[in-house]
Write a structure and sequence with these properties.
1 helix, 13-stranded parallel β-sheet, seven-stranded parallel β-sheet, mainly beta
């Protein structure tokens, strides 16, 4: 990726160990899959990391219930251009694909189906920080809540924000998007959800906010 005066160097990765090593590096990192890759364990994005993972038109396979992404307060994760799927022999799926506590998440041109929950925001555990989530040009299908948005009440004075644009979000067995708005569970309210040019569907409702 190049600009007039700036070049972003990408690191090619083709194994879980290589992804782990790149994600754990502090500062900004741009990593690109060299082909279909399988992960078994959780990938942690620290508060000092800004990670971009380009799936590069490949598939990232999840092989255990521990295989997911976790963004801690201050961390940033972007996933682009590919598919996230399960290996055929998986015995138990991860409860959440991505968990953010006070982090930033961007999904662009990503397809994933058969998930339990795609994105879970837990800002009540975010040390007073708010998650910022942007999903664009994606297709996400889950069995449970597709996106759970939990704010931090008055801890930050702002709201946890989700923007969904030109995407399809579907829950086959529950509600697609659930948030606490300005009231609800003590300590978990303060959420903002914007849906632009997208389709959001669920068995019991598209959005509960």
């Amino acid at each position: 990726v190049s600009g007039e005066n700036y070049v972003i160097e990408s690191t090619s990765v083709g194994s879980e160990a290589e992804i782990q090593n790149s994600i754990q590096t502090e500062g900004s990192s741009f990593i690109k899959l060299s082909g279909d890759t399988t992960i078994q364990e959780s990938l942690h994005v620290s508060g000092k990391s800004d990670v971009t993972l380009d799936l590069n038109a490949s598939t990232l396979y999840l092989a255990s219930e521990n295989a997911n992404f976790e963004i801690v307060p201050g961390g940033s994760l972007t996933i682009l251009n590919g598919e996230i799927a399960f290996v055929d022999e998986i015995s138990a799926k991860p409860e959440n694909l991505i968990v953010s506590s006070g982090g930033e998440l961007t999904l662009n041109n990503v397809t994933a189906s058969g998930l339990v929950c795609a994105v879970r925001i837990e800002d009540e555990n975010a040390e007073g920080l708010d998650s910022r989530v942007r999903i664009s040009n994606c297709a996400l299908e889950t069995s449970d809540v597709s996106m759970m948005v939990r704010g931090n009440a008055t801890a930050s004075g702002r709201k946890s924000e989700v923007v969904i644009e030109n995407s399809s979000i579907q829950s086959t067995d529950y509600v697609a998007i659930m948030g606490n708005g300005n009231s609800g569970i003590e300590g978990c309210w303060g959420t903002s959800i914007s849906i632009i040019g997208s389709t959001v569907t669920g068995k019991w409702g598209g959005v509960y906010h």
